[in-house]
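Look over what follows to help learners.
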Amino acid sequence: MRKELAEVKLPEKFTLLEAMMWNPSGYCVGSAITLADLFVYALLNWLGMGVLDGVPPSVVLDFPKLKNLVEMLNADPRIASWNKAKNPKLPWF
């Protein structure tokens, strides 16, 4: 089931998500961080850190818009400070 999740299900969903991310700012909506960005960021970090056995980080890294969103949020000083204090595993790539 994890193999199907990593190779079929998540790529399908991430393809749909990237198609909805038409905003040139790189954020999910608008030109600044929103709750949508934070939600997607948390999900992508969880998956990218290898929490689920059999689901490799490449499942996130293979999607340039999603990878870019993670990079942008990692670079935000508020998020970087939170990550440093709360989860030293972040950023994971």
User: Anything to note?
Assistant: Residues 2-20 form the longest helix (19 residues). Residues 81 and 87 are 10 Å apart (CA to CA). DSSP finds five helices and no strands in the chain. The mean pLDDT is 94.
